[in-house]
Every structure is written in C-alpha cells, then in structure tokens.
Amino acid sequence: MPTFNDFVSTLKSDLLDFAKENLAEYKDELLKDGTLFIEKAKSDLERWTEGLASGALSKEDFEFLLKGKKDLAQMEALKQLGLSKIRITKITNSVIDVVVGSAVKTFL
Question: Angle, nearest 10°, between helix axes 27-40 and 85-107?
C-alpha cells in the first residue's frame, strides 16, 4: 500500500514535470511555492490521502477539500517576479490539479 511519502515523491516529480512543460522560465519559483504549499497543508494532506486510499473520500471530495486550502498556496516567489494576479490564480489552480492527479496516481 502506498504511503504519504510515496505521494509526496510523486507530487514533487509531477510538479517538476508541470513546471518544465508549462512554466520553464519560472520552474524554480513554482517548485519553491509548491513545496511550501505541501508543507503548510501537510497534516490535512496526510488525512485526506488516507481517506482517498481507504475509499472514505472520492477524488471529487479530495479535490473539494484541497481547493479549500487554496489560500495556503500564496505563490510568493511567483508574485515577486511581478506576474499578474490572474496568471498566478491560473497557476495555483493548475498546481491544485497536479496535487489531485498525484494523489489519484498514488492511491487509486
């Protein structure tokens, strides 16, 4: 059975792939911000991924809960680059999609 650490490894790899494919010029900042989000939401992510793995949560439930933590993904490194608020919001939504995809890949 996969562990939370397996999920984190998959997520970091998926974030790197996403950054290389979509935001190569901001890869380092995206990885920094993504890692910070994982750290801030760690306890919730552990609980929710357990629920996902056990079947207590559906993919949709997991995604809904994760979107509730969107404010933790402040993307400070990207903001410092002067990206527009709209672009940062799109990137944040994409990061959440990557987190959901990584969880599904790991636990379902």
Answer: 60
Q: How many CB atoms lie within 10 A of CB 24?
A: 9
Q: What is the pLDDT of residues 22-49, one digit of tens each?
A: 999 999 999 999 999 999 999 999 999 9
- What does pTM read for this prediction? 0.93
Please report, for the chain, how many H helices and E strands are present, in that order. Answer: 6, 0
pLDDT band of 66, cuts 50, 70, 90: very high
Domain range annotation of the chain: 4-107
Helix, strand, coil percent values for the chain (each to nearest 5):
80, 0, 20
State the number of CA atoms in the 13 A half-sphere of 76 facing the CB. 5
Phi, psi of 3 (to 5 degrees): -110, 170
